């Protein structure tokens, strides 16, 4: 229970830090991008220019503490400012449409990549002397060295353009609505396969490598020798004695890995014009929609923090030492 | 002799490396009777753990038995197939490892870890029977049965080691190898464990190979003592004899360097120098460079065992010529 | 210790392969003008203007871009900046990680608390979105801002592993002995501690260089780099923005990605070898 409270405390604290960073970033930037931008945006309605000013903290009449207070209060009311590229739509309304796509795509792909990566990593460590293991490991080392977006491009090129098995991009067939029911869902799945594959394959390498290393370390432990000496079956040794111990550090390292996965997913969306947060981030960058950019960044951090928290809870369930507070 | 349980003959074992074979156990022979406790003493790296792993057939990866015999009640374990050894191990002989902290799986309850050994060898044993047996074993090592479902980290170091002993004895083996079972524990707990082991031995009459660098402890509990150095046994015999009359210069050095009563010898402060490289063992006596009484012949040749008194044997040229003791 | 590592490094097949690939890239970068048939911004020769969007031919091995530049020449010249950004960022990142790791790990106390705190925050913030946000605020487009952003966001992981290694090494006997003998902290850090974490420092360098190579390509691909610079990343940017895919111009977007991947692989191989060499548990098996 103490562990649980500590994790909640850290979550709250981290969220606070994230909010602060999000507030500070535009105000810390060198030069004066805002003015340049406002000049470029000439002809835009004054209210839009105001939105930019707000995002950059150019309200020189207010001191920074008051600005910070206003920022927090606005956030509490769900007010993330006005989007420049979708003016005059509030940022939240723009972002809201993108969130479900990303959460769905990224969530499923991340879970799949973790599951497959863990399974493959365990097998590679268990059969580490075989040549096939070496080859598979090499293959994933190789895949991991490519930029995710490039890998996505290749998949599009071979599986959507050259051999039109899958759609080139988007999340559904144009014109289909949720009201179309099953057709709509089928279309979502169909459109999700290539981007999902990209994320899964590119991020899998990370899990494979970590779990393989953990597993090799665990296999050198005395309790594995004891298990063998006791005459247990190979599958019991592999799963209950080795894998269970090897997975733990991997789950607790989930937060770090999530950074890679999210990076990969954002880029994948860009390549597939998938209407999620990543693609929106890309558009926000292109159109210099800073309020939207900030909001997306904030949501990504919050997403990471919550996933991190869930990983902490899973660890608590899996590891009796953590449950008893015997291990940090 | 019919009461002979284990006979190791000319065992050579070690590790295959890129640079060649490391002979961690180099021509080791000894016998063990039923119910007897043999202590094997030596500095760390002398090959005593490899010897234990060889007998258990647990050498892995690049480790292997290169030649020799391990006869256990008439069967040569070296000839056993993987399947046979898997059946045999833990049933007839088991092992207690140096650090119980590492020898118990941290994410499984001790009940599960005790019971799975039972289930692996006694097919068809019911969950209830297995649990009962596990409870009995815990009580035998003075752990209350309500701790059966504890996780290792919930037990103290001494308790963990007692769980390990219970685990080693759960199938009622004829031989238990104990590899530094008390090294990681503090002195009081050590004493407890040793007393427990002696109690259990007198009750169940199993044999023990007790490995440690703590010579004073061995002198106290062993029937028989073997002094190991650089993969070889240099002196072997009844513990009391070796204590009262150490023969080999190395044994003498060890005896001099241990503090009175009980205590550990962290380093062999009494003897200068380092053991030889096991990758290229010297042709002669491995102790030659450090020996105070070395002779020309020791550099190039290693003598065979010479029995000087009833069962007290030594490999040293100091005693080769004469039949009488110094 | 260092000599042993070098020896093992050469005898390790993975490391050797990595070194060979890296050497080839360095060779290409240094001798780019000799290897490339044209200047990267040359769109005509004495025979007249180059054809736009040409397919590969003997004249243009990998065809030409929408502006008539020879893609093969751009690929060769692109090695220079891409390699430079990767290695410079790797060096800076490793330097920051090493400094902070040594400071926090060796001195402990308040310094360590502050470093660990900032470190933990940077570990949780996903780096790519942070990189994108910062880069989009910086209005100067070019190689140095990219190096700055990648170094600024890339030091956290290295700092963490180096710090924890320093913490273990400083408890070792030889460090304690040096302290008792009254050696100055700097001497202890450089003579006693540093040699013992050298493999970790190398691993940090390799990892951060891979991250930098990929990070650079990513930023440029999104258009946050200097799009007139000749790098693999900007090549992909132009290919994407001119629908190379839909023109079936695989020769435009395949080679730069492949080069990025190969360069990354070479560092990954060396990194893996370091791991094998320095982690006896992995080496033994």
Automatic annotation (TrEMBL), chain A:
<feature type="transmembrane region" description="Helical">
    <location>
        <begin position="246"/>
        <end position="272"/>
    </location>
</feature>
<keyword id="KW-1133">Transmembrane helix</keyword>
<dbReference type="InterPro" id="IPR035906">
    <property type="entry name" value="MetI-like_sf"/>
</dbReference>
<feature type="domain" description="ABC transmembrane type-1">
    <location>
        <begin position="99"/>
        <end position="311"/>
    </location>
</feature>
<protein>
    <submittedName>
        <fullName>Peptide/nickel transport system permease protein</fullName>
    </submittedName>
</protein>
<dbReference type="InterPro" id="IPR000515">
    <property type="entry name" value="MetI-like"/>
</dbReference>
<dbReference type="Pfam" id="PF00528">
    <property type="entry name" value="BPD_transp_1"/>
</dbReference>
<keyword id="KW-0813">Transport</keyword>
<feature type="transmembrane region" description="Helical">
    <location>
        <begin position="188"/>
        <end position="209"/>
    </location>
</feature>
<feature type="transmembrane region" description="Helical">
    <location>
        <begin position="98"/>
        <end position="124"/>
    </location>
</feature>
<dbReference type="Pfam" id="PF19300">
    <property type="entry name" value="BPD_transp_1_N"/>
</dbReference>
<keyword id="KW-1003">Cell membrane</keyword>
<dbReference type="InterPro" id="IPR045621">
    <property type="entry name" value="BPD_transp_1_N"/>
</dbReference>
<comment type="similarity">
    <text>Belongs to the binding-protein-dependent transport system permease family.</text>
</comment>
<dbReference type="GO" id="GO:0055085">
    <property type="term" value="P:transmembrane transport"/>
</dbReference>
Automatic annotation (TrEMBL), chain B:
<dbReference type="GO" id="GO:0005524">
    <property type="term" value="F:ATP binding"/>
</dbReference>
<dbReference type="InterPro" id="IPR017871">
    <property type="entry name" value="ABC_transporter-like_CS"/>
</dbReference>
<dbReference type="GO" id="GO:0015833">
    <property type="term" value="P:peptide transport"/>
</dbReference>
<feature type="domain" description="ABC transporter">
    <location>
        <begin position="6"/>
        <end position="255"/>
    </location>
</feature>
<dbReference type="Pfam" id="PF00005">
    <property type="entry name" value="ABC_tran"/>
</dbReference>
<dbReference type="Pfam" id="PF08352">
    <property type="entry name" value="oligo_HPY"/>
</dbReference>
<dbReference type="GO" id="GO:0016887">
    <property type="term" value="F:ATP hydrolysis activity"/>
</dbReference>
<dbReference type="InterPro" id="IPR003593">
    <property type="entry name" value="AAA+_ATPase"/>
</dbReference>
<dbReference type="InterPro" id="IPR013563">
    <property type="entry name" value="Oligopep_ABC_C"/>
</dbReference>
<keyword id="KW-0547">Nucleotide-binding</keyword>
<dbReference type="InterPro" id="IPR003439">
    <property type="entry name" value="ABC_transporter-like_ATP-bd"/>
</dbReference>
<comment type="similarity">
    <text>Belongs to the ABC transporter superfamily.</text>
</comment>
<keyword id="KW-0067">ATP-binding</keyword>
<keyword id="KW-0813">Transport</keyword>
<protein>
    <submittedName>
        <fullName>Peptide/nickel transport system ATP-binding protein</fullName>
    </submittedName>
</protein>
From TrEMBL, chain C:
<keyword id="KW-1003">Cell membrane</keyword>
<feature type="transmembrane region" description="Helical">
    <location>
        <begin position="81"/>
        <end position="108"/>
    </location>
</feature>
<feature type="domain" description="ABC transmembrane type-1">
    <location>
        <begin position="79"/>
        <end position="271"/>
    </location>
</feature>
<feature type="transmembrane region" description="Helical">
    <location>
        <begin position="193"/>
        <end position="214"/>
    </location>
</feature>
<keyword id="KW-0472">Membrane</keyword>
<feature type="transmembrane region" description="Helical">
    <location>
        <begin position="15"/>
        <end position="36"/>
    </location>
</feature>
<feature type="transmembrane region" description="Helical">
    <location>
        <begin position="114"/>
        <end position="135"/>
    </location>
</feature>
<keyword id="KW-0813">Transport</keyword>
<dbReference type="GO" id="GO:0055085">
    <property type="term" value="P:transmembrane transport"/>
</dbReference>
<dbReference type="InterPro" id="IPR025966">
    <property type="entry name" value="OppC_N"/>
</dbReference>
<dbReference type="GO" id="GO:0005886">
    <property type="term" value="C:plasma membrane"/>
</dbReference>
<dbReference type="InterPro" id="IPR035906">
    <property type="entry name" value="MetI-like_sf"/>
</dbReference>
<feature type="transmembrane region" description="Helical">
    <location>
        <begin position="142"/>
        <end position="158"/>
    </location>
</feature>
<protein>
    <submittedName>
        <fullName>Peptide/nickel transport system permease protein</fullName>
    </submittedName>
</protein>
<dbReference type="InterPro" id="IPR050366">
    <property type="entry name" value="BP-dependent_transpt_permease"/>
</dbReference>
């Amino acid at each position: 229970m103490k562990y649980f409270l500590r994790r909640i405390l850290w979550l709250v604290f981290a969220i606070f830090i994230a909010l602060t960073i999000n507030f500070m970033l535009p105000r810390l930037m060198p030069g004066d991008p805002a003015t340049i931008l406002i000049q470029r945006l000439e002809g835009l309605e004054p209210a839009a220019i105001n939105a930019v000013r707000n995002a950059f903290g150019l309200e020189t009449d207010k001191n920074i503490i008051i600005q910070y207070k206003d920022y927090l209060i606005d956030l509490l009311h769900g007010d993330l400012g006005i989007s420049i590229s979708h003016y005059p739509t509030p940022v939240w309304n723009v972002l809201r449409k993108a969130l479900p796509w990303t959460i769905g795509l990224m969530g499923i792909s991340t879970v799949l990549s973790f599951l497959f990566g863990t399974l493959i990593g365990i097998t590679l460590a268990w059969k580490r002397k075989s040549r096939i293991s070496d080859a598979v490991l090499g293959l994933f080392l190789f895949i991991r060295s490519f930029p995710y977006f490039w890998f996505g491009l290749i998949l599009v090129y071979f599986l959507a353009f050259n051999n039109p098995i899958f759609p080139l991009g988007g999340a559904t067939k144009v014109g289909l609505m949720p009201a179309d029911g099953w057709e709509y869902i089928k279309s979502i799945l169909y459109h999700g396969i290539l981007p999902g594959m990209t994320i899964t394959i590119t991020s899998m390498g990370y899990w494979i490598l970590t779990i393989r290393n953990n597993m090799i370390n665990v296999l050198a432990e005395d309790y594995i020798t004891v298990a063998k000496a006791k005459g247990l079956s190979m599958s019991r040794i592999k799963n209950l004695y080795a894998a269970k111990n090897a997975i733990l550090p991997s789950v607790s390292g989930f937060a770090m890995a999530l950074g890679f996965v999210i990076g990969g997913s954002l880029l994948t969306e860009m390549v597939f014009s998938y209407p999620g947060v990543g693609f929106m981030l890309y558009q926000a960058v292109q159109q210099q929609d800073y309020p939207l950019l900030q909001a997306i960044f904030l949501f990504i951090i919050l997403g990471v923090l919550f996933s991190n928290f869930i990983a902490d809870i899973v660890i608590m369930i899996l590891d009796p030492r953590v449950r008893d507070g015997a291990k940090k | 002799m019919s009461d002979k349980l284990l006979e190791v003959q000319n065992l050579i074992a070690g590790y295959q490396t890129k640079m060649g074979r490391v002979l961690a156990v180099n021509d080791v022979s000894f016998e063990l009777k039923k119910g007897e406790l043999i202590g094997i003493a030596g500095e760390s790296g002398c090959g005593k753990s490899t010897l234990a792993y060889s007998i258990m057939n647990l050498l892995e990866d690049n480790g292997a038995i290169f030649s020799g015999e391990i006869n256990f009640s008439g069967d040569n374990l070296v000839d056993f197939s993987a399947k046979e050894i898997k059946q045999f191990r833990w049933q007839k002989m088991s092992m207690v490892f140096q650090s119980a902290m590492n020898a118990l799986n941290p994410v499984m309850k001790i009940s599960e870890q005790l019971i799975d050994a039972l289930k692996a060898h006694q097919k068809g044993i019911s969950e209830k029977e297995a649990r009962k047996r596990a409870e009995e074993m815990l009580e035998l090592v003075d752990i209350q049965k309500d701790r059966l479902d504890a996780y290792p980290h919930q037990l103290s170091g001494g308790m963990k080691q007692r769980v390990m002993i219970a685990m080693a004895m759960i199938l009622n083996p004829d031989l238990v190898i104990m590899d530094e079972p008390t090294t990681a524990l503090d002195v009081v707990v050590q004493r407890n464990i040793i007393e427990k082991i002696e109690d259990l031995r007198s009750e169940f009459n199993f044999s023990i190979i007790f490995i440690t660098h703590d010579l004073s402890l061995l002198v106290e509990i062993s029937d028989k003592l073997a002094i190991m150095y650089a993969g070889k046994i240099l002196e072997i015999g009844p513990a009391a004899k070796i204590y009262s009359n150490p023969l080999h210069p190395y044994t003498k050095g060890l005896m001099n360097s241990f503090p009175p009563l009980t205590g550990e010898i962290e380093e062999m402060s009494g003897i200068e120098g380092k053991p030889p490289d096991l990758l290229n063992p010297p042709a002669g006596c491995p102790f030659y460079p450090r020996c105070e009484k070395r002779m020309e012949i020791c550099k190039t040749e290693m003598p065979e065992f010479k029995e000087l008194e009833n069962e007290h044997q030594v490999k040293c040229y100091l005693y080769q010529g004469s039949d009488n003791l110094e | 210790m260092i000599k042993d590592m070098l020896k093992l490094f050469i005898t390790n097949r993975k490391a050797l392969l990595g070194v060979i690939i890296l050497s080839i890239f360095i060779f290409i970068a240094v001798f780019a003008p000799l290897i490339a048939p044209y200047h990267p911004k040359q769109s005509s020769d004495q025979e007249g203007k180059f054809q736009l969007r040409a397919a590969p031919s003997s004249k243009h091995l990998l065809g030409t871009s929408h502006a008539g530049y020879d893609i093969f020449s751009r690929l060769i010249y692109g090695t220079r900046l891409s390699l430079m950004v990767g290695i410079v960022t790797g060096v800076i990142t490793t330097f920051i990680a090493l400094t902070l790791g040594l400071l926090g790990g060796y001195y402990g106390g308040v310094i360590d608390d502050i470093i660990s705190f900032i470190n933990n925050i940077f570990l949780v913030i996903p780096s790519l979105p942070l990189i994108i946000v910062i880069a989009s605020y910086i209005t100067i487009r070019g190689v140095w801002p990219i190096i700055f952003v990648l170094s600024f966001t890339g030091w956290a992981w290295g700092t963490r592993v180096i710090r924890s290694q320093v913490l273990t090494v400083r408890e070792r006997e030889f460090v304690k002995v040096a302290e008792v003998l009254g050696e100055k902290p700097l001497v202890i850090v450089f003579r006693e501690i540093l040699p013992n974490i050298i493999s970790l420092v190398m691993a940090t360098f390799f990892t951060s260089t891979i991250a930098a190579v990929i990070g650079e390509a990513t930023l440029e691909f999104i258009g946050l780099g200097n799009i007139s610079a000749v790098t693999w990343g900007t090549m992909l940017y132009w290919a994407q923005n001119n629908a190379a895919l839909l023109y079936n111009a695989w020769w435009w977007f395949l080679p730069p990605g492949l080069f990025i991947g190969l360069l990354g692989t070479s560092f990954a191989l060396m990194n893996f070898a370091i791991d094998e060499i320095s982690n006896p548990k992995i080496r033994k098996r």
